[in-house]
Amino acid sequence: MKELYHKLQGMRFIDPHIHMTSRTTDDYERMALLGVKAIIEPAFWLGQPRTSVGSFRDYFNSLVGWERFRASQFGIKHYCTIGLNAKEANDEALAEQVMEILPRYLQKEGVVGVGEIGFDDQTAQEEKYFRLQLELAKKYQLPVQIHTPHRDKKRGTLRSMEICLEHGLDPGMVIIDHNNEETIEKVLDLGFWVAFTIYPRTKMGNERMVKLVETYGADRIIVDSSADWGVSDPLAVPKTAYMMLEKGIPMAQIEAVTYKNALLAYGQSGQFEEADWLQSQPIDKAELYGGNGVLRGQNPQEELNKNIIE
Ligand SMILES: [Zn+2]
Question: What stretches pass through the bilayer (predicted)?
Fold first, then answer.
């Protein structure tokens, strides 16, 4: 951590896909120390199916409310995307109710896209709600954040892009996530944004990501952590930047894939601007949100940061 901290001094990062609801305040502290300035939390599934629309409503409320506040208490600007995830799109009765409440959330401040949507098992139900949500993205002029399936990825990725084009979406408004070496070329060719999730043990490791940037350059390529309740790494974006520095990737390319491209892609929402975090106010950890704060009765300890980097 100490070496990372010193080597990355002065750099800024955006993690455009991270599920902070599942993470701890230690994660926020370490991310802020390593230069993560802004994050996007996509609405997704929570590990087990929800049984009523009220659970979705409360979850969406927390993404635009409490979680945003919690991030601010650690100096990080929090944004989100709102959508019905592919897995839960298979529960038709519930999906119908969720579709009804989506428009209200898509118009809220700090909502930078429709997401994460797409395919899981590539069922007819998933396709139906994917298409309906693409129409919502067009209506509200928001970028789309697409989750590509873990099983049968190549086919699912191609289908997702075909469907977007069928609905007349501009590929420049669509971020295809969880890519790998098999999908990158086609996604770049068709003009979509190509995001990569850096998982600590599977799929894209940082070294493979370095190789991809060496091969394809940095245009339209985005790195994220997709950290959630599973085995994942909330520091994946700064760690990838560190490895790229070590391997001699030019600074401009590192900045593009770990900061600027995400800003360009999601900036199209009109809700995601650099000025939001460059002119941030000093943090007051004693602040409350709805009567609740992060200190749990303790004194603010800025000293804490020092312990983390030692
Ligand atoms: Zn996700």
Answer: none
